[in-house]
Design brief:
Helix content: 40-55%
Shape: globular
Strand content: under 5%
Number of strands: 2
Largest sheet: 2 strands, antiparallel
Structural class: mainly alpha
Length: 174
Amino acid sequence: VPERGSQDFRKKELIKTDDIKTESIKTEKKELIYQSINPSRQKVPEKTNAEMDRWMEFREIFKKNIEYEYILDRDPEMIPEILEIMIEAACTKAKSFSINGTQIAAERVRERLLSLNSMHIEYVLDSLNQNTSKIQNVRAYLLATLYNAPKTINTFYRTMVNHDMYGNARDRRY
C-alpha cells in the first residue's frame, strides 16, 4: 500500500511541481482584480478622467439621439439598460464584437449605434416583447438587436401589418 495517493495514481505523478518555475510568473498589484461575492469589497480598476469624460460624452450623445426623456416613459426599466449597453459598446477598448456570429469592427458598431433614434429603440422594445425564446446572453442579444435595428426595422413592421391585414385571409369566406 503506497504512503500517499492511491495505487493507481500517486500524488507525485499527478502534481509535478518540479517543472513549474515561479520566477517566470509576474503580476503587478494594480492589474489584479479580486472577485468577491460582496461587490462592495471587489477591487475594480478605476477609469481615468479621460475615460470618464468619454463615457459622459457618449451618454449625452445617445440620450439626445434616442430622445431619452421621451422614450423613457415607454419602458422605464429597459431604456436605462439599453442606454448603458450602447455606452459600453461605444467606449470599449475591444477591437471587434461578435454579432450574429460575425466579428464586426468596434468602430463600425459604434457608428451604427450613433445612427439610432427613438424609433429604433421602440422597435427593439417591440422585438423583445414579442420574443418568446430563452435568451442565453441578454447583453449580446441586445447589442445584436441594436446593431441590426436600422437594417431590419422596416421589414419587421411590414410583416406585422401584412399579418394583421392579410394573415387570416385564407380563413375568410366571401
